[in-house]
């Protein structure tokens, strides 16, 4: 929870405006969450004709896009894509209309979905379950409720993010004396994500979990831009504070410095590669 009510500085507001927010995300953290989505789709059987899919907390539709642009995608399927962030929903709606995709886009919270019980053959949630209430349990319960018997759920969470410690360190550097929030629930060891799925009704024997890596890859001369966009998204984890506008460049420069020396970062000629890891659970109802 943010511990400050100060509005984001103008630099962050510019990068998170309705016209920029989607591209800001997709060129930072979205570089790895898209890889997670592609990997996780490879863990389930090929989607067949007649499938009814929930792209849950869909963002701009990464999962929807991967499914519908796959050479193996059947003609007869339906996707319901839900999220609560209007710029992302608008981006997906525009893409779906442009390509005449079989997608219904709606603004819905993952904890209180408006779908009937036993609706979906697949419920796919990419890097979002931990945002739902009751430490993820309310979101998991809705996944279980809306899946058909025999349906498949895929959920994932962060295991490691190379740039999170640098974000914390920058916060402590430019905002001395202001605490950085500690997560109430630890998801990084993969235990909690399994627990919420079990507590939601999925049986242990019908669940599989694995860990996998992805990489944010940027050009060395583009690292500062990547860092600035990331600070716009993540610099407010503890809230924004008076003075953040004045320390903006200092924060971004410090973030670049720290990113280059993290254990999860490798620099190869003109490329910087930053590792992120996930835990992914595939569960059958």
Automatic annotation (TrEMBL):
* Every Methyltransferase domain range: 55-151
Per the UniProt record, the source organism is Epicoccum nigrum (Soil fungus)
Q: What CDD domains does its record include?
A: AdoMet_MTases (cd02440)
What's the protein called, per UniProt? Answer: Methyltransferase domain-containing protein
Its organism's taxonomic lineage begins at:
Eukaryota, Fungi, Dikarya, Ascomycota, Pezizomycotina
């Amino acid at each position: 929870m943010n511990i400050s009510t100060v509005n984001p500085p103008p630099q962050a507001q510019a990068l998170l405006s309705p016209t920029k927010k989607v591209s800001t995300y997709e060129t930072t953290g979205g570089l790895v969450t898209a890889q997670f989505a592609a990997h996780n789709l490879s863990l389930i059987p090929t989607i067949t004709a007649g499938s009814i899919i929930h792209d849950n907390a869909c963002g701009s539709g990464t999962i929807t896009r991967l499914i519908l642009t796959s050479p193996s995608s059947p003609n007869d399927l339906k996707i319901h894509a839900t999220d609560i962030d209007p710029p992302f929903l608008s981006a997906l709606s525009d893409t779906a209309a442009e390509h005449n995709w079989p997608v219904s886009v709606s603004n819905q919270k993952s904890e209180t979905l408006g779908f009937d019980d036993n609706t979906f053959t697949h419920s796919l949630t990419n890097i979002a379950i931990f945002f739902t209430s009751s430490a993820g349990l309310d979101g998991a319960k809705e996944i279980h409720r809306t899946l058909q018997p025999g349906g498949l759920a895929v959920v994932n969470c962060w295991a490691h993010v190379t740039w999170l410690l640098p974000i914390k360190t920058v916060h402590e550097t430019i905002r001395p004396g202001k605490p950085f929030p500690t997560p109430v629930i630890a998801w990084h060891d993969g235990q909690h994500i399994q627990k919420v799925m079990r507590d939601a009704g999925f049986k242990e024997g019908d669940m599989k979990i694995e860990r996998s890596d992805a990489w944010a890859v940027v050009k060395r001369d583009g690292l500062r831009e990547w860092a600035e966009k990331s600070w716009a998204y993540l610099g407010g984890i503890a809230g924004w504070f008076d003075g953040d506008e004045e320390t903006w460049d200092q924060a971004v420069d410090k973030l670049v410095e720290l990113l280059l020396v993290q254990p999860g970062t490798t620099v190869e000629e003109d490329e910087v590669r930053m590792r992120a890891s996930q835990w992914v659970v595939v569960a059958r109802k």
